[in-house]
Design goal:
alpha/beta, 19 strands, binds pyridoxal-5'-phosphate
């Protein structure tokens, strides 16, 4: 009985509801009224890239997107044959590998475009590329000063098929700012120039999840949604629940060690918390090495056996403590740390002064992922 010897023993786990992912994809497609690219980089924002990719495709996602060649290869190795977009250029030496796995890069640097063009010519065909322009993100993408030169290069390239144009929005999650409309104006200028060169590709995309929800003009012919398909809010101002999306995961554990302590008992590193009265303390076997930010210690309530209970004292590497007061916890009591009747990811993000993305992708590989359709 190998399973009995090898476990799993730890009770802490991430449960992913693939039905929520499917519903969110359907909802985002409804909002966008365009095709959707499901962004499954960073192991599907911590949810498991392969099962999320399959669920998203089942729900009608046209494209998948990843950040790394390695992530695209992992999807291919799992038998996924959907079109896969690479969101950023890998080093030029990865061109052969990305073509071998039929990944479509978003490209912008002259050296990368030249290498891709040469690889296409070597094969006697045109290889698909989505050219990305910088309209104000200030990260990657052809800067406006290079648009003319890039279009001339594309005119001359016999090994490239311009299958898409893309840009990325810097402030879509802050709808009150005018940055997004200025970026979209710039993108329109680029698209007009490109059309003059005869380039009117099928796929034109600018919107991330916040762009999809809050900026109708950003939707073009494809939207690239990551955080929204996981049902998490891009920001405090663009709320997932208000858009009809629901979180797809719960983070749960169990009470490992309950004990009764006297008022004033100091708890955890630094002794920064003391029991306010005689009462029950529960230790839960999960910590910052699993991705629970230290900053949530003392700042969120979790749920123990159905009751709200504050997380107290410093979060440790592998354990954290919860104050149950008068209610005696038992070994094995279910602890809902995130999702379910526990706090929302948005609450953790606020408590840790970060964004939902960092909470979701920060849950480490040490936590088992369990997939189902609740
Ligand atoms: C990660 C990423 C997205 C998805 O953004 P969300 O805010 O998670 O929807 C879209 N486009 C690019 C270029 C990205 O890097």
């Amino acid at each position: 009985m190998a399973a009995a010897v090898n476990g799993p023993w730890r009770p802490s786990r991430v449960e992913v509801d693939l039905a929520a992912i499917r519903d969110n994809v359907v909802r985002l497609r409804e909002i966008a009224g365009t095709d959707l690219c499901a962004v499954v980089k960073a192991d599907g924002y911590g949810h498991g890239a392969v099962p999320v990719a399959r669920a998203a495709r089942d729900a009608g996602a046209r494209w998948l997107a990843v950040a790394l060649v390695e992530e695209g290869v992992a999807l291919r190795d799992a038998g996924i044959d959907a079109p896969i977009l690479l969101l950023a250029e890998p080093p030029v030496d990865a061109v052969e590998a990305l073509l071998a796995h039929d990944l479509t890069p978003m490209a912008y640097s002259p050296a990368f475009l030249a290498r891709l063009d040469a690889a296409g010519r070597d094969r006697g065909r045109r290889v698909a590329v989505h050219v990305k322009v910088d309209t104000g993100m200030g990260r990657v993408g052809v800067p406006e000063s290079g648009w003319g030169g890039t279009l001339e290069m594309l005119d001359a390239a016999t090994g490239l098929e311009v299958d898409g144009f893309a840009t990325h929005l810097a402030c879509a999650d802050e709808p009150a700012r005018d940055t997004t409309s200025r970026q979209l104006d710039a993108f329109d200028r680029f698209l007009t120039d490109a059309a003059r060169h005869g380039f009117e590709p099928r796929w034109v995309h600018a919107a991330n999840s916040a762009g999809t929800i809050a900026h109708p003009r950003a939707r073009h012919t494809l939207v690239r949604c990551g955080i929204g398909i996981y049902g998490l809010s891009p920001s405090g101002e663009v709320d997932a629940a208000a858009a009809g999306l629901r979180s797809a995961f719960t983070l749960t554990s169990q009470v490992a060690y309950p004990k009764h302590v006297a008022a004033g008992t100091a708890v955890s590193y630094g002794h920064r918390w003391h029991a306010p009265s005689d009462g029950w303390l529960a230790t839960v076997p999960i910590g910052y090495a699993d991705g629970v930010p230290r900053a949530v210690g003392g700042n969120v309530d979790v749920v123990v056996a159905g009751r709200r209970a504050p997380l107290v004292g410093a979060v440790c590497m592998d354990q954290l403590m919860v104050w149950c007061g008068d209610h005696e916890p038992r070994v094995g009591d279910r602890v809902e740390l995130l999702g379910g009747s526990g706090p929302r990811v948005e609450e953790w993000a606020a408590a840790a002064d970060t964004i939902t993305y960092e909470i979701a992708t920060g849950l480490t590989g040490r936590l088992p992922r369990v997939h189902g359709s609740a």
